From TrEMBL:
Annotated Gene3D superfamilies: Homeodomain-like (1.10.10.60), Tetracycline Repressor, domain 2 (1.10.357.10)
Domain HTH tetR-type: 12-72
Native organism: Nonomuraea spiralis
Source species taxonomy: Bacteria, Bacillati, Actinomycetota, Actinomycetes, Streptosporangiales
PANTHER family documented for this protein: HTH-TYPE TRANSCRIPTIONAL DUAL REGULATOR CECR (PTHR30055:SF146), HTH-TYPE TRANSCRIPTIONAL REGULATOR RUTR (PTHR30055)
Name the record gives this protein: TetR/AcrR family transcriptional regulator
Length: 215
């Protein structure tokens, strides 16, 4: 008689199914209301299988939040390098960069549904999760943008004393403005309106950081 082999819980595809399902369920139901039963059902596995991969709901939530942030960070890094590595027309390059950065939100709908859940439930999410999320996600984008702005300033195209602050200002004037109005893509705006918001934001940024003209 042949014995059945145990389920290979450590397989990467099983874990991926769980994290993908968890991201959808957390984004839909929020941290507090989401259940491990619902996540297991969405992943097509048993709850026992979920617990073989993740200790508890807190660990699973942190995992999917951080992995999603890493995926978005990698995509934004490519956008930065594509638009800001070589500057031809500073205003247009910043506009194109910001528009692509805004568009990236729609490429990760499950992740940004999770972002909405985090912001809505911040008071009910365990502090260690929030701390790790902030470090990996919303408060680090300007740190990766800062070196590009510093190099642009070194060419005399901007007058920047603190590149990190300048990067934060550019983000607030463009991407953050659109994300707040669309609730991270949940309430789409016409593309013309997005372009107008980004263009106004970039021009305000350039006025603030225009190099001093010596008479």
């Amino acid at each position: 008689m042949t014995q059945s082999r145990p389920e290979p819980y450590g397989r990467a595809d099983k874990r991926q199914a769980i994290t993908q399902a968890a991201r959808r369920v957390f984004g839909r139901d929020g941290y507090t209301r989401a259940s491990m039963d619902a996540i297991a059902a969405a992943a097509g596995v048993s709850k026992r299988t979920v617990y073989n991969h993740f200790t508890d709901k807190e660990q699973l939530f942190l995992t999917v939040a951080l992995e999603g942030a890493e995926d978005v960070t990698a995509a934004i890094a490519q956008i930065m390098d594509r638009h800001l590595h070589k500057i031809v027309d500073l205003e247009q390059d910043l506009i194109d960069f910001s528009l692509d950065r805004v568009a990236a939100v729609t490429s990760f709908p499950d992740h940004f549904a999770l972002v909405r859940a985090i912001e809505a439930e911040a008071a009910h999410i365990p502090p260690p999760i929030l701390k790790s999320w902030i470090a990996a996600g919303p408060q680090t984008g300007h740190l990766r943008l800062a070196p590009y702005l510093r190099r642009i300033a070194d060419r005399g195209l901007l007058d920047i004393h603190d590149a990190e602050s300048a990067a934060a200002h550019l983000t607030l004037l463009t991407v953050t403005d659109v994300n707040q109005q669309t609730f991270y893509g949940a309430v789409p705006l016409p593309q013309e309106e997005i372009t107008q918001l980004v263009t106004i934001g970039v021009r305000a940024f350039l006025r603030s950081y225009a190099p001093t003209v010596v008479p």
